[in-house]
Amino acid sequence: MATDTELQRILGDLVVTSHRLARLAARVTGNTESPATWRTLSVLTTSGPLRLGELASHSRVSQPTMTKIVRNLVETEWIKRIADTDDARAWQIAITPKGAEALESWRNQLANALLPMFADLSDDEVDSLRRAVEIIGSRVELTDAASAALRGSST
């Protein structure tokens, strides 16, 4: 059983390594789209429609920055504004099928860019990666569910 200190170090290394891996893959693809674009589409995919302020908070950008991102994504038809059923004066932002397709294509580009670096992994190493993704994914889903429950109880 890992100590809290060891687990803390491993989790810190995981976050840093994951960011480095994502940046490397993005550079290799040559795609010039802003990382904020992909982050915004990803947030909308996992969280569903959100108000502008909520979307900015999830994406960790200011509201003015998110306003610009949303304007550009509306122009590309990757997202759309929909009426907020709780407040007729407000709008929510939702991903469109075209945006979901663009995000899926981007994720495939990232994976294909990294494939040569990982092509020589043994079956055991691939299984370890698969298991790590499952573990991390389950923890993130738990956090997303807890956050959604907290948002629901605060309204």
UniProtKB/TrEMBL annotation:
Molecular function GO terms recorded: DNA-binding transcription factor activity
Coiled-coil stretches: none
Record domain HTH marR-type: where: 4-138
Top-level division of the source organism's lineage: Bacteria
Pfam families xref list: MarR
PROSITE patterns hit by this protein: HTH_MARR_2 (PS50995)
UniProt-recorded name of the protein: MarR family transcriptional regulator
Organism taxonomic ancestry: Bacteria, Bacillati, Actinomycetota, Actinomycetes, Micrococcales
